[in-house]
Write a structure and sequence with these properties.
The chain has helices at about 15-25, 35-45, 50-60, 70-75, 105-115, 145-160, 175-190, 190-210, 235-250, 255-270; strands at about 25-30, 60-65, 85-90, 95-100, 220, 230, 270-275, 280. By secondary structure, the chain is of the alpha+beta class. It folds into 2 domains: about 5-115, Glutaredoxin (3-Layer(aba) Sandwich); about 145-280, Glycosyltransferase, CATH 1.50.10. The strands form 3 sheets. Strands 2-1-3-4 form a 4-stranded mixed beta sheet, sandwiched between helices. Strand 7 and strand 8 (about 280) form a beta hairpin. Helix 7 runs antiparallel to helix 8, helix 7 runs parallel beside helix 9 (about 235-250) and helix 9 (about 235-250) packs antiparallel against helix 10. The longest helix has 18 residues, at about 190-210.
C-alpha cells in the first residue's frame, strides 16, 4: 500500500498533542503488537479501508504505539484487549475507546466521535486554564467514588449476560474488571456483582484454560470463549492467577483455586528460565 493510501501515523510525543490542540482534533491512539493476530487483521481491513483512512487523517491526529515498546501506555489506555483504539483529548485524557472494530463500524465510530469533539473532551484552552473545580464530597467508608461508579455502570452496560465478559468477539479475559467486581462485592454483598464476576470466570475457565498443559490461552476468537487463540502470555497467566485465587478466597469454589494454581504451575514450569532467573513473556 502506498503512503498516499495509508493512515499517516505519528509516534507518541509532544508533536501529536500540540497538533491536537492547535487543530482542535482528538488524538486517535492505536495500541498494537507484532504478536497480536487481530491487530494484523485490523491493519488489513479497517485501517486499510479508504473511508476510514480519509476520516482518520482529516478529523483526528493518528498515533500508533507498540505495546511492547510502551507498556505504560498500554496499561493506561488498554480498552480490554488488543488491538485497542483510544480517543484522547489534547491533554491525553481518555474520551472513549474500543477493541477490534470492523470497517463499517469503524466508520460510524469515527464519524460519531469527531462530530462531537471538542464537546466530548477538553479541547478548549490550554492546560492550567481551566476554572478551579469545586471539590466533591468524599465518599463514606466503603462507598465508591464517582469514577468507580461510572466504571461499574459502563461494565453493566457492556456485560454479556449469556457467556460473561464484556462486549462480543474477539473476547479478552477482563481480569481488572473482574477484580473490581469482586472487590465491590466484598464491600456491598451485591449478588449481581458476584454473578457478573463468576459467570465471566466460569466462561474463561471452560474455554481458555488448557487442561493438558495448564495455564490460560490469551483470548477467545468467539463470544462463548470456546475458540481460543493458541498463545499463552506471562501477563495473562499472572493476572488470571491472582484473579482466580482472589475469587477462590471470596467464594470458596475449588475450581477457581485449581485454575489459579495451574496458571502459576505453568509459569514456573514453562515460562521460567531457571539459569537466568527470569520469565519469558510468552
Amino acid at each position: 500500500m502506498s503512503t498516499e493510501q495509508s493512515i499517516h501515523w505519528l509516534d507518541w510525543g509532544d508533536e501529536a498533542f500540540q497538533r491536537s490542540l492547535s487543530e482542535e482534533k482528538p488524538v486517535l491512539l492505536a495500541l498494537t503488537a507484532t504478536w497480536c493476530h487481530w491487530c494484523h487483521v485490523m491493519d488489513q481491513t479497517s485501517y486499510s479501508h479508504p473511508e476510514v483512512i480519509s476520516l482518520v487523517d482529516s478529523r483526528f491526529v493518528p498515533v500508533r504505539v507498540d505495546v511492547d515498546q510502551r507498556p505504560d501506555l498500554s496499561h493506561r489506555y488498554n480498552q480490554g484487549g488488543f488491538p485497542s483504539v483510544a480517543v484522547l483529548d489534547h491533554q491525553g485524557e481518555l474520551i472513549t475507546g474500543r477493541i477490534y472494530t470492523p470497517p463499517e463500524e469503524m466508520v460510524q465510530f469515527l464519524e460519531q466521535v469527531s462530530s462531537r469533539y471538542p464537546e466530548t473532551g477538553e479541547a478548549d484552552g490550554h492546560p492550567g486554564d481551566e476554572a478551579t473545580p469545586v471539590p466533591a464530597a468524599a465518599p463514606s467508608a466503603g462507598e465508591p467514588g464517582s469514577e468507580v461508579t461510572s466504571v461499574l455502570q459502563r461494565m453493566e452496560e457492556m456485560y454479556d449476560a449469556t457467556y460473561g465478559g464484556f462486549g462480543y468477539e474477539p473476547k479478552q479475559p477482563p481480569w481488572d474488571g473482574v477484580g473490581l467486581l469482586l472487590a465491590r462485592y466484598g464491600h456491598t454483598r451485591d449478588r449481581n456483582l458476584l454473578r457478573m464476576a463468576t459467570t465471566t470466570l466460569d466462561g474463561i475457565q471452560v474455554g481458555l484454560y488448557d487442561r493438558n498443559d495448564e495455564g490460560f490461552f490469551r483470548y477467545s476468537v468467539s463470544r462463548d470463549w470456546k475458540v481460543p487463540h493458541y498463545e499463552k502470555m506471562l501477563c495473562t497467566n499472572a493476572s488470571l492467577a491472582v484473579t482466580y485465587l482472589d475469587a477462590y478466597q471470596l467464594t470458596g469454589r475449588r475450581a477457581y483455586r485449581k485454575a489459579g494454581l495451574g496458571a502459576i504451575k505453568y509459569m514456573q514450569s514453562i515460562l521460567f528460565d531457571q539459569p537466568a532467573g527470569l520469565f519469558y513473556a510468552s
